[in-house]
Amino acid sequence: MSAPDERGALTPRPSLYDYALRLYRAEPDGRLPEGGYPSPDRPSRGRSPLDRRNARQTTVDAITPFLTDPDTVRAADEVQRRLDELGVRDRHIRWALTDLPLEDEAAARALGRRLTRTGTSGAAVCLGIGLVARLGEPEDIPYLRILGLVREFMDCAVEALAPLDRAAAALVWLTVRVKGRELRRLVDALATRDAAAARARLMSIPRNPRAVGPETTRRIAEAVRLADVLREDPLDVGVLGQAAWLLSRMTSQRDYRPEILSYEDAVIAYEAVVARAGLLPPTLDHCATLLSLALDLHSGPSHLLPWPPGRREALLAALESLLHSPAWAAAADREPDDPAERRRAHWIRRTARQPFGRSTADVPRLRVEVAVRDPADPDVAETRFLIDGRPVVPEAFGLGPGNAPEALLDSGRLRATAEPREVQLAEAYCTEGCCGALYVTVQRDGDHVVWRDWRRPRSGRRGRPELPAYRFDAAAYDAEITRAENDHSWAWPARITARFLAAGLRDRPELLTRWDGRFAWVGTDFHDPDTTVLSFTYRPGYAEGKQDRDGPWLQFVWSLPDDDTPPEARATAALTRLETTDPKTFAQVRGGSREDAEALGFTWPDDPN
């Protein structure tokens, strides 16, 4: 062995905690590292020799004997050696943690602390953090904060920190995850405990949905202790407006879980914002933000927060009184010159009555509504279902919004017949193939309609309640579905054009098939909701039923910007054009492959998205 190798073999390897602490102490001015620190323990990320079929049980069996060992130092050394011998990786530890028997909590806690502070492998430290997550106490906070700065341990450290110090957990998450000058300045201010600077940086956070996602807004609220800030008297009006926006952003369902349900201070924050909302100037922006909060309190995830009896209804009543007062109503009656602001004003006018005006005494058994978010925070138009006043999709599924009204209402899928029909009510934010969907079977049974046999494929229960069979009076059910199908008050001109266009293509599918096209979908552009978009697939031979399913194909998109023509007239003009002109000559290629485009004589776009 060479001299350098011999020195390396004899020198004890520093713990991963010491590694992270050394890097942190070297940071200038107490700043926290953007993106966190890399782990020096690279070998643990490689392929494990463990059999995947029994890796979880093998890991549990390897750890369990050491959980009650009174000699903590020996137990920590031996369990780390055993994990290394078996090739246990961090992911195996995470799988096994819930199955570990903690009969002697004091011994298990001591082992967790020893591994957290002295462990030299990723698996050992991950086990230590996992034990502390279940048994930790305030003295563990400083160690978890430092280890969380290592990217490999951020998620488990944040999970362990949250019940001990939610603000510290949020700051660790923001340190590793967020980018952008204003957000990094907020992190720096929080790291140095400069309350005045943190307040100023909170005010400067850009209200840009692309830059600040739902989870980021929740973590910001936790890190700045927003609920405490909102108790201040006097309260800066700018901070109040920013707090209202943070709450509204948390209600977005463009994530795997509505973040508002993970925000422990949500009820306190809602109460404080609504109580002082009258201090806000009646601007279009404030009007849209408060209306968004009301809409979510009415039929979205915020409805499910742990409200004291009558408090949610009281908040809705207060928001209704404020937003319908003359000064606030006037804010939405203006016609701004800016197209984006004009779009918001139109949305406010369409939505202004939707969350309000229903007493708890006349809650119907079933209510079906279409909800559209503030255009400044764009999202899909979703169908919401309230059974006995409670929103079904976020309570029973929670991984994505209800499906579009075109899929559920325009299609007649919710109409009940004697023949059972399975209906997909919602799909995961990613896709059904990734995280699942929510299905129910709808069937008429004499004087009743039954929703039964609920399914959540691929999503698992994830703590969601089992759903019973719901029985509705058939006459009332039919009346509600008919009302919902014919209620287009939520729709804007481009969306109405899309509905007329979809109906025309359902009645006359040959308008596309004659050009070897197959209808895919029609809706509005996500980033430009005033543009109607028609998508179709092209396969040579489709018109004659001779298409090669393994042959080349392309997806085309036809965009129809709003030109102030009435929606029905715009749809009629589009259908007339399809009668005489091949849409492939004016639509854009958006899907397929470059090879298929070249084979079919089309140019592949530089950016198909």
Brief overview:
Helices cover 46% and strands 11% of the residues.
Provide an overview of this structure:
With 609 residues, this protein is an alpha+beta fold. It contains 28 helices and eleven strands. It has helices at 3-10, 16-25, 55-63, 72-86, 90-96, 105-118, 122-135, 141-147, 154-161, 166-177, 181-191, 195-203, 214-223, 226-229, 237-250, 266-276, 284-299, 311-323, 326-333, 339-351, 392-396, 405-410, 432-435, 474-486, 493-507, 510-513, 567-580, 594-599; strands at 366-371, 382-387, 390-391, 421-427, 437-445, 448-455, 470-473, 517-524, 531-538, 554-561, 588-591. The strands form three sheets. The chain has a four-stranded antiparallel beta sheet with strand order 4-5-6-7. A four-stranded antiparallel beta sheet has the order 8-9-10-11, with helices on one face. The chain has a three-stranded antiparallel beta sheet with strand order 1-2-3. A hairpin with a 6-residue loop joins strand 8 and strand 9 (531-538). The radius of gyration is 28 Å and the shape is globular. Mean pLDDT is 92; it is low at 1-10.
Write the layout of secondary structure elements.
Layout: H1 3-10, H2 16-25, H3 55-63, H4 72-86, H5 90-96, H6 105-118, H7 122-135, H8 141-147, H9 154-161, H10 166-177, H11 181-191, H12 195-203, H13 214-223, H14 226-229, H15 237-250, H16 266-276, H17 284-299, H18 311-323, H19 326-333, H20 339-351, E1 366-371, E2 382-387, E3 390-391, H21 392-396, H22 405-410, E4 421-427, H23 432-435, E5 437-445, E6 448-455, E7 470-473, H24 474-486, H25 493-507, H26 510-513, E8 517-524, E9 531-538, E10 554-561, H27 567-580, E11 588-591, H28 594-599
Antiparallel strand pairs: 1-2, 2-3, 4-5, 5-6, 6-7, 8-9, 9-10, 10-11
Helix pairs in contact: 3-5, 4-6, 5-7, 6-7, 7-9, 8-9, 9-10, 10-13, 11-12, 13-15, 15-16, 15-17, 17-18, 17-20, 25-27
